[in-house]
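Please check this.
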Amino acid sequence: MRLRAVALVGLGVLIAVAAALALLLSRPTEPDASVLAAGGLHTCAIRQADSTVVCWGSNDHPFSSSPRYVGQVSPPADLGAARAVSAGYEHTCAIRHADSAVVCWGSNEDLSSGTIRTGQSSPPADLGAASAVSAGGVHTCAIRQADGAVICWGSNDNAFEVTSRIGQASPPADLGAASAVSAGGLHTCAIREADDAVVCWGSNDDLFGSSRVGQASPP
């Protein structure tokens, strides 16, 4: 009886070890994605296997009474491999691996009506190679590889009141080279390379400009 009990215990241990080993071997040794970016109503990732950009979620303008295609989850067919991706509210930008060029797709218009061209998906022709890119609400910023300068384009106004100038696409003249940049809804922040200080510009108020919240004022 004791021998049988020992045998059963031994068999149980072997089964547990086998199950644990099978679980370990079934787990991927590396994650499927190397970079992840969540936007307004969509998400994009860079696939680890081939560095292609894969996106999912809404492909439409979120404020239309009926769906209106803008294409933020549809990377250009000729994009190829990418080394960075950033998802804005309804546009997406990536840095192409081959030449470090910024490529954007999706909406190029304002958020409210979707009829006023703001240009967040149109990088400047003279931008050149970029080391970083960040897609915001209706603006985009990148760090130029040549000199570390922050270059922004798109709306400089309130996303819902395009006649109200805020300045999120206008980096301070004395910013200098930056090591990182992040574009928000109506403001932008960068890390200055010289002293690692955080510098922000754009709106310091809520979306309606009626209440100060301080997002562009680092402590």
User: Anything to note?
Assistant: The two ends are 73 Å apart (CA to CA). The chain is about 10% helix and 30% strand. The helical segments are 2-26. Residues 2-26 form the longest helix (25 residues).
